[in-house]
Amino acid sequence: MKNKTLYKMILIILIPTIGMIFFSSIYIYNKYKTLDRLDTIDLHINYVLNAEFLLNNLQKERGMSAGYIGSLGKKFKKDLIFQKKQTDKSKEFFDNFIVKNNFNSQKEKSHIKKIQNELFKLQKLRTKVLALDIDLTNELKSYNNMTNAIIDSMTVLLTSKADSKISNKLLATLYLINTKEYAGLERAMLSNSFSKESIKKSYLKKIIELVSLQNSNIKNFKNIINIEELNFFYNTFNSKLIEDVQRFREKIYNFENEKILNEDAKNWWNTSTKRIDALGINIEYFMKTVLKEAKQLKHYTINSLIYSFILWLVSMFASVFSVIALRRITKKETENFKSLKKQKKIYNILNNANELIIYNYTMQEVLNKACSFATKELDLALSFICLFDKNQNLQIVESFGEKKSILSNLEINNKNKLYKKCIVERKNIIINDIFEDKSFLDLFSEKANEIKSIAVYPLYKKDESMGVMAFCSNDINFFDDEIVAIFDKMTNDLSYGLEKEENEKLKLEYEEEMKLASYSFDSQEAMAITDANANIIKVNSSFTKITGYSNNEVVGKNPKILKSGKHTKEFYERLWFDILNYGSWSGEIYNKRKNGEIYPERATITAIKNNMGKITHFIAQFFDITEIKRSQERLIHQIQTDNLTGLYNRTILNEKLNQAIALATRHKIFGGVIFIDLDNFKYINDSLGHDIGDLFLIEIAKKIKGCSRVDDIVIRLGGDEFVILVQNISSQKEEAIIKIEKFANKVRDTLDNPIKIDSHKLTTTSSIGVALFPEKNKNSIDIIKNADAAMYLSKEQGKNRVMFYHEDLDKKTRNYLRIENELREAIKNEQFELYYQKKFDYENKKVLGFEALIRWNHPKKGVLYPDSFLEVAQKSDLIIQIGKWVLNSAIKQIKQWEKQNIDINDIKVSINISYTEFSHPDFINYVKTIFKQNSADTKYIEFEIDESSIFKDLTLAIKRIKDLKNLGISSSIDGFGVGYASLNSISKIPVDTIKLKRDFLRKKDVLVNDSIINMVIEIAQKLDLKLIIEGVEQEEQIQYLIKKNSYLYQGYYFSKPLKANDAINLLNKK
Fold first, then answer.
1. What are the start-end ranges of the E strands in 557-597?
2. Where does the EAL domain lie (predicted)?
3. For domain 360-498, which CATH number applies: 1.10.10.10, 3.30.470.30, 3.40.50.300, 3.30.450.40?
4. Is 941 in contact with 911 (CB distance < 8 Å)?
5. Are 587 and 600 in contact (CB under 8 A)?
6. Out of 3.40.190.150, 3.20.20.450, 3.50.50.60, 3.40.50.170, which CATH number does the structure's domain 838-852+883-1068 have?
7. pLDDT tens digits along 868-901
8. ∠ CA 988-990-991 to the nearest 5 degrees?
9. pTM (two decimals)
């Protein structure tokens, strides 16, 4: 008992110890892999630094070679010779690095081999350049093969095995490397053009493309870096560098055919190189930052690895100790086991005989197993059993042992003295040496002499003799007292078994009936009982209720009468396999009622066995799960369905669209996504309440569904946005576009019709975007984004129209570049001018101030309004320079009015500030600087910030407005009422004024607009804010507003925007 307890205690310790070894091994392995990955990252970063050094010199050599070719050898010669030496030096460093370090992956080796092959051609290329035996195109192509090979290798190394914490920095570095390459190509091409003092049209197109690629990469770079990294970038890659390069670019824009250029190539070279070097500084900064972070992570990983290894060693020592202890205990237990083995063998014989009888084997099986077990356990030569037949003659019924062949030589009959004495006296006969005692044994051949000792035991049933059981051994004196006693007990048990078998047969039918009766037929579950051949013998009332069959109709029939035909042959084979091999089967199955209706049920079929292990019956228990299935279907429907409109909701959009894209790709037929957004729906919600808004959306959904085909899928994304998934339009793209455009316009026209909700007659328009699929390398998310972008383009174009997504942006890009260049020129030449529109207090009949509105005095197109150029200014960051000019100009104008002794104490000049400006990290600083430079008072200036801009980043907006307030500059929310603000959010913003958007004074949608105006007035009054109504143009509008106690206006009724000199008159009249 003590050993067993100790054994269990050691096992309790050993099992968790093994677990600790297992998990710590996995942890150590993972940390080792992390360490390996960090070593690889360290190698890759050092590779990039060496490769960047080589790349930088190759880019410079490429540019100088281009200038040298353009000047026909007159320029860049000395610089080129020096640069070649620098390139060779960097190549030597690169080669030494490659030799010293191992690059194991095949991909890495392949890229390095490619670089070496390309660099092998460098000397031959230089010879052609010096001899002017190569043109610019081929020169660039040759150098580009080298630089591209290096950049490709850097890309592969920077994107492999990247840790999630540093992956953004590596990606940012790649953007900078690509930007630097495009800038280097631009430097080379313009060096060539300035050297030969002319430029081809094809070169200009290529340069514009390179500029666009640089901007795109810089934009992507900015999107993934943090504030600290962005500040470093701005400090090194400043606007001065950009402006200097832009000055040279402007020399080549707006040309006709081939243009003569008059610009020094060396100046261009130095200017562009400064900008490119700034990019190189940033690349080096990011690489060193990554190296630093990787080093910190490596240090942490090594410490973790050490601690884990210590834990692993402790666990191993504990395991070894436990194993040694277990071995000692096991050895001791084995010795004890051997001492008991002999005794156990003897008693196993008796126990086995008892078990055979207890477990209701047939008597034939019991006798067979008793013979074999006794012979095997005691290594007997032979054991056999003789029973009386119908003629009362002894017949051998079972035998076992290696000497079975001698049975034919023994006289087995009831006249034999040995058997006769045993049967008559019902006592065992033991002969331990047949050569000494042959009185009871008749032998007919010498083979019988192989038996040295024999024991014969009587078998009987009640008072009737049944036969004998004999045991033969090859050994003399084999049957000692212990064995004789055990065999005596065993034969008594077998005799009891013979008697019991007869009783068992009588009880079997009774027991089977009792077993079947043990199953409750009053259960709510349907039940059916079959015999072993699966013929129905009984069913309960629930069976009749579910299937429609009564007990009399199914008794004697096979359950196949319920077969639905919905399952395969394999299904039923698996079902019967489980029943016959595992005793039961449970699952869902479809069956058929008497009336032919197919229904689902949850069933359990169990095999019933008797005490002999033989199957006697099968019992099926089942219940109808039709309602459960319906509930499941309703739940799935609820998950995928919009509760308000009954359409599909957005949860199913990607799944359905991916399926449609796959089918469209397989069958080569186009489909489309139609993205619908209702114009101004929020006004209906805000003015009439959400109940009316919901009823309106339900009618809109019905209209969209009514326009659609049966196969089209209509989805409500949420709010007032809907999507129609249109499939199988046409195999021809042009025809598909025509058809889907016609369908989209039909939807738009349908939605344009008035809808009557209660007493309200409501109208709305819709902005619709369309995107076709399949598109190369675009998944469902891309297609939805494309349709969404097209929808927003529809809104930008004036709403209530259908727009297609397209990728033909070349014309738009060129127009963008043209406006950007002209804006830079406008800033430089001060082509802008401020106009001032009066803000008027109608109740007190005085001027409140002016809104400063910018105009562009374009040298060719005349006066341009902001909507023709501000979008480009914002996207190119020129808005910062323009905003500074506006603030500076407005302050100077105020100073001018003061000098003219005009009373402006109560006057404020409002200046519009874009999101780009106030979100700029340096916004507050440059505002302070401008006021300080002009020695101006901040009380005269008010900043107007558009409502949508504020709610792009509410937290930032509140901080900026507070900072301005601390400077003494007041702020107002411009364009108020478009739907971003609420009373709660406005109360958090420290503004002094709100300006209602001019659109709300239109006659259209009077009911909606009246509600919004009332709401805005109430907000202003509750928060004690000034409310200025924009767009006042008519007397009736003034009377309308007076009735609402609103008196502060701005609009053409009082004054159009005026030049500064004309505004003086308004001030004098106040």
1. 584-592
2. 816-1070
3. 3.30.450.40
4. yes
5. no
6. 3.20.20.450
7. 888 888 866 789 999 999 999 999 999 998 888 8
8. 120
9. 0.36
